[in-house]
Design a protein that fits this description.
seven-stranded antiparallel β-sheet, single chain, alpha+beta, 138 residues
Length: 138
């Protein structure tokens, strides 16, 4: 009886460990596919027009992820995908020692997106809304 109980416990623990490993593997693959919407955007130079009157900015889009960290452009930040569908991606990111942000990019066409981003940079809050259009080659 004790041997059967021990074997059952080992099977239960190993099954739980397997499920945990599977659960940990899924977010990584989900995050890769989430960014697939962005990688489907037309490559090239894009002009970002901010709705609050901030001067427009040109960026070179290689894979679409350039839209995620508009206020933390030159920083390596950890990212977590919140929402993933064919027309919209929401990503929350943390830049160790320099704030964080949450950005939603909504695709209208392969050459037009709407961007909403909020967060903290250099100890100050930001809240920006913008439209980005492909305007040429890089």
């Amino acid at each position: 009886m004790m041997k059967k109980l021990t074997n059952a416990l080992i099977v239960t623990v190993s099954s739980a460990a397997g499920l945990f490993a599977l659960a940990m593997a899924v977010p990584g693959s989900a995050q890769t596919s989430a960014l697939a919407m962005l990688s489907g955007l037309t490559k090239g130079e894009w002009t970002i027009t901010f709705r609050d009157g901030t001067p427009s900015r040109q960026i070179c889009v290689r894979d679409g992820t350039e839209f995620i960290q508009l206020q933390h452009t030159a920083q390596t930040c950890s990212r977590f995908v919140i929402e993933d569908n064919a027309t919209e991606v929401t990503v929350q990111y943390t830049c160790r020692g320099n704030g964080y942000g949450r950005t939603t990019v909504r695709r209208e066409t392969g050459a037009l997106v709407q961007i909403d981003t909020q967060g903290i940079v250099d100890g100050r809050p930001f809240d920006l809304s913008a439209e980005a259009r492909r305007t040429g080659s890089c």
